[in-house]
Amino acid sequence: MRAAVYRRFGPAAEVLAVEEIETPSPGPGQVRVRVAVSGVNPTDWKARSGAVPMPQTSGDDWFQVPHHDGAGVIDAVGAGVDPARVGERVWVILAAFRQPWGTAAEYTVVPAAHAVRLPDGASYELGANLGVPAVTAHRCLFADGPLDGRTVLVAGGAGAVGHFAIQLARAAGATVVSTVSGPEKAKLAEEAGAHHVVNYREEGAADRIRAVAPDGVDRIVEVALAANLRLDLAVAAPYASIVTYAAEAAQPSLPTRELMTRNLLLRFVLLYTVPPEAYAAAGEGITAAIQAGALTPLPTTAFPLEEAAAAQDAVENGAVGKVVVTVADPDLS
Predict the structure, then answer these.
(1) N or C: which end of the chain has fewer CB within 10 A?
(2) DSSP states along 217-241
(3) Which residues of the chain are under the pLDDT cut of 50?
(4) End-to-end CA distance of the chain
């Protein structure tokens, strides 16, 4: 099969190239997916650059096909998997986690639970948008209970996690406020469905959030805890959850007494280590939202497989929206 592969860490243009490699076969409990579209996330270029550790990175035969997310069709199953799943349209998550077979290839193999049915009518492009961003958003939103009738603040509503957090929260019956850094990103958050959008860089941001949530917000999906904690505390309701999913170089200074007095919950989410039931709940919730027409892809920039290195560079350089790699024609013919 054709696949983008790297065998050492470094700049994408120097270490990532498309090669012919052996097509993997699904092992017990796995499915093989013929990939239509591969989604690129920041974690993908960070792993390839060596910025984050990988479990197995040694040996003469070591290689990595990058990208955790993607969408396609199951074409083979391993022992213990229902054969009826062959031919099923799916989106996948964490394909490159602790194994070499990411989605930047014509085929990938993943645990059966990490290949989630893609409802009829949903595009492979939408499927490739999901994965890491949508499952992260779901965990941040629902780890602490239902949202119906509650108010949610999504920091960074123009990003991929923010986009799906807005849409999943709104589909669950929440009033959604999003913070952004400027007009272009405000437009993206509005298009995602945020009821209210506030520029956090402008004076009076907390007052504008409090104007639409006078009793405070109940759940905060946070992308930059150290930078935004004071704003979060200014608008959080008693007993609110502040849930952060991104690590920064700056470390937050926690006002312990204030957090205690208001009985606030500070939750940290790392997708690789969430409990298995969280994946199942996310799969169910995301599927229901797709079927309801509540989820849309971000504005998307597509690269062919041969330009996988350029796709990773685009994400590393801060591309707005979603970057994908088109592997096969949409009908997979």
Answers:
(1) C
(2) EEEEEES-HHHHHHHHHHHEEEEEE
(3) 333
(4) 15
- Residue 51, number of CB atoms within 10 A of its CB: 12
Residues in contact with 120: Cβ distance below 8 Å, sequence separation at least 6, in sequence order: 89
Is residue 187 within 8 A of residue 320, CB to CB? The reply is no
Look at residue 330 in the predicted model and tell me its pLDDT: 59
Contact 128, 153 (CB under 8 A): no
The CATH superfamily assigned to 134-273 is NAD(P)-binding Rossmann-like Domain (3.40.50.720)
pLDDT of residue 247: 87
CA–CA distances in Å: residue 22 to residues 43, 147, 208: 25, 46, 56
φ/ψ of residue 247, rounded to 5: -95, 140
Q: What is the pLDDT of residue 58?
A: 59
Distance CA 99, CA 110 (A): 9
pLDDT at 60: 76
Q: Helix count (H) and strand count (E) of the chain?
A: 11, 15
Residue (of 105, 118, 35, 30) closest to 63 by Cα position: 105
| CB-based contact 303:323 (threshold 8 Å) | yes
Q: How many CA atoms lie within 13 A of 232 on its CB side?
A: 32
Contacts of residue 293, defined as CB under 8 A and 6 or more positions apart, other chains included, come to none
Predicted local confidence at residue 333, as pLDDT:
46
Q: Where are the domains of the chain?
A: 2-130+297-326, 134-273
Give pLDDT, residue 297.
95
pLDDT of residue 249: 84
Between helix 225-235 and helix 205-212 the angle, nearest 10°, is: 50
Topology of domain 2-130+297-326, CATH: Quinone Oxidoreductase; Chain A, domain 1 (3.90.180)
Measured CA to CA, the distance from residue 321 to residue 133 in angstroms comes to 12
Q: From CA 287, how far away is CA 291, in angstroms rounded?
A: 6
Supply φ then ψ for residue 175, to 5 degrees: -85, 130
Could you give the CA distance from residue 24 to residue 32 in angstroms, rounded to a whole number?
8
